Amino acid sequence: MKLDRTNKIRAGLLIAALILVIRLFTIQIIDDKYKIDASNNSMVHAVIYPTRGIIYDRNGKILVGNKVAYDMLVTPKEVGEFDTLALCEILEITPEFLKEKMDGYYRDRRKIGYRSVTMLTHLPPEIFMKFAEVSYKFPGFRGQARNIREYPYNAGGNLLGYISEVSADDIRSHPDTYNAGDYIGKTGIEATCEEYLKGEKGYQIFLRDSRNRIESRYKDGEMDKEAIPGKDIVTTIDAELQHYGQELMQNKVGSLVAIEPSTGEILTLVSSPGIDVEMLADIGKYYRQIASDPYKPMFNRAVQSAYPPGSVFKLVNGLIGLQEGVLTPETHYPCSMGYHFGRNKLGCHAHRSPLDLQESVMMSCNAYYCYVLRNILENDKYGSIAEAMDAWNRYVKSFGFGRKLGSDFPSELGGTIPDSKYYDSVYGAGSWKATNVISLSIGQGEIGCTPLHLANLCATMANRGFYYIPHLIRGTENVSIDPKYYRKQYTLVDTSYFPVMVEGMYRAVNSGYGSGATAAVAAVEGLDICGKTGTAQNPLGDDNSVFICFAPKDDPKIAVAAYVEHGSFGARWAAPIASLLVEKYLNGEIGESRRPLEKRVLEGNLLDKMNIKGN
Amino acid sequence: MNRLTGRGVMETIDWRLVICYLLLILIGWMNIYASIHSTEPASIFDFSCRSGKQFVWIVSSLGLAAIILFALNPRIYESLSVPIYGFTILLLIAVIFLGTEVKGSRSWFSFGPVSFQPAELSKIATSLMLATVMSQSGFRMSNMKHFLATAAVIIVPMAIIVAQSETGSALVYVGFVFMLYREGLSGWLLFIIGMAILLFILTLTSSAYTSILVLAIVTTLCSAMYYDRIKSWLKIYLPSFIVLGLLPFLHDKLSGLTDNPEAFILKVKPMYIFAAAAAVSIPIMAFKAFRSGGAFRWLAIASFIVGVLFVFSVDFLFHDVLQDHQRKRIEVLLGLKDDPTGVGYNVNQSMIAIGSGGFFGKGFLKGTQTTYGFVPEQSTDFIFCTIGEEWGFVGAAAVIFLYVFLIWRIIADAEQCREAFTRIYGYCVAGCIFMHLFINIGMTVGLMPVIGIPLPFISYGGSSLWAFTVLLFIFIALVRNERKYF
Hints:
heterodimer, A: Penicillin-binding protein 2a (Domain 2), Beta-lactamase, B: mainly alpha, 2 domains, three-stranded antiparallel beta sheet, 20 helices
């Protein structure tokens, strides 16, 4: 075929046709993009939101439930003429707000197209019902029911956490689970149990036309999916006790933690000041206020704050001394207003002398524990003080100190317990002695632990030598928890050494005023409370008031740790608070004789003692 | 002197064309039904919907075809072409003042439920007029007077149609260029005009960079072909053009990686690299041209430079001199921006519909895109979407094949004719159908801008179906006449 003009035209025709066919081949067969688009285009997945799981307390009371609120949706394309003032009145908004919104929709009309946008959220049913009666007057406006959280008790705001709309990061990290506008637990139990609570979204598939008009059900609903409600969570919290604990801690800064020693279940965990549940329900509104509060109510001090434990820690040193064989219950040490070494002195309060081990616990003698720690660290068994220090460190850590306990709080703090390496770096290798670290003996110095650590120590004392990892979520048939929570955790100290220390704790509380016992204020008749006070130095002001106690002595039901910042002596604030909590839990109410004490605690205000910058 | 060959109807009519025509209108009818098909199906004969109406148009078209084939003497067209052409021009002008306004353009006459577009008639009239003018004995394309007369026949109706704001319909007249080429129009002239149009559109739709790249490829390739140096072109130029072609994508990717607004990569635009490459290679080429004394090389360099100036001036005029509203008007005129509500919506929807068809399609009446009315103008300009979605690649390619076969047959028949009138008219018909085919399908698959012209024989609409029927059957009748007498 020669290449005359006719054939050139023919060739051009074939080339043109080939271009079209290749293009068709590309978009119909090679490129998947258009197929995916097609099903998005014509099918509407109307999402059915599952109800979120309910959070119960240990006694089956609802801590967090659900209630219905309404979102106001607007489809700008469908909005016609309407009485703006009437709408404002019904929805309780200002005309300016409405005008601003409508102007905004007009500006974005291309972007919005036929879609609906949310104008208001969290309308209570009363307001929505008023609107629903006259909704025909307002074309383009409609309400959409949504489940929001409801809190029957003002208990555990910090523990429960809040839910809010998913962030871009949430969507990015779980692209299959969340879509924009979904809610997700952000903090506390709502966050840790998100997987159980959230449930599974369902959907109904509709076919729609290009104007977003719904035409019919796709395959008569055959492919629809029911929403699966979220699973309920049972917490170990006692709602009443938690509420009472919050009242006791009101206007004080600190924490109050109660554990059931026989299970490790957390009965109460108060961080004060905390978040009111009222604010949780509508966190968006209060977020700014909470975030800018100088007392940092979002900060869960009970698990995130590292404090020096103070004299409470003497229990640990005593137990280590017994285990190491450098101390017996009969060992007596003198105290003359403190422990003297070289030209220095570690002071103590006035009490009789010398004391044996039980009495040292009862009267909280500082000097006694200086001898004990010194004997531990200068034990001939070890080649050097560094080795002895590391042995001590191992003992202390076996009580859970200096590391994360492994509770189900995601943000738990590990705290610090020093070892030889630490002091080598401070003083230089080999150039420090027991006297350099002597304040460890009374729980001062380089020790940092959380109130949860202290409560756990208390539970260990109550159990005479072991603890269960404290936890907040109870295993149920729906919700499985880590089996580690069911295992006893033994310390490196033999259980046979505990009873003598417990006896000391008993005498600290129950020896009566005038005996020299430090915690007589905590005594409740018939409850056999065992406790240990602590007064921890706080460089910012008054000492911190610390107290741990459990009761009853022989069949412990509750172990409490109270830590009140700037509360001065352990017996002043922490001991009353902890003992009141114990009394409330075991007796259900506060005895007549202790009412004045309760009144004093409830009315006590220590917020002024906080040294807050700018205030 | 004519003499009868004595061949009967069966032999003289090109039945392949007729069968092709019948297949196409049948496909059209089925797909119009599919495209209006919704969740509440109606009968294909329901006269209240488009498939029923189209049935009426089809029956009447067949009637028209029969009249043209059997009742009218094909001789009349040559003598009637002048009055028909004149009448059409009058109608075209009249419609500007008397027509009903549809989507911003006055190009339709409405008589109750029936409306009629003179532009459809003008394709036939212009084709006949061209055939008449150009088949005069002594007609020479190289004669300036004759050439201008021919150009006037095409440009007058074209200009009036543009004045009606029906730029798309006017574009169809470009199809007559194929006929002009066949009849002796200079290939180089065509080529230069074609390049200018291509560069103009590319500059506006894509970028100056792309236009200049295309220009460079074309000029170097021409030069290489002229000197028979294709091999060295493939070795040296092609790879560098591929690199330059990929440069903007690479640049995009790389600049996406950096957050620094001062980054080096953001300052080096692909155009600078291109300019550097040109600054190096043009002197080398000039040196070669100087040494070998090749006039064509000089020509290539000169046309490249002229082309670059052209592209930049278009780019500058369009983006910097013109006001926003003027630019928009040009964009709409060119079909770059069709509807003010959503640029690209139609094409995107149409590509989704076609793309979702896959290899075998979703099956008749099973298309989700088409059934739910996502594609606008679906039974008229975007009918090909329905075909693509419901019949898949197989069906869509088959339809294109049918058209190619039809056009091929028309060209073949035209070439066999002894009378210049029939041949020229045949090429006009082929050119018209081809332009409609390429623009329409090109538009639905996103190759061409949105230009609202129908797919011949398939799209819904009486005016268009009648016009194409008449256009085609006059040719079949002319061919039949030749076969009868020669």
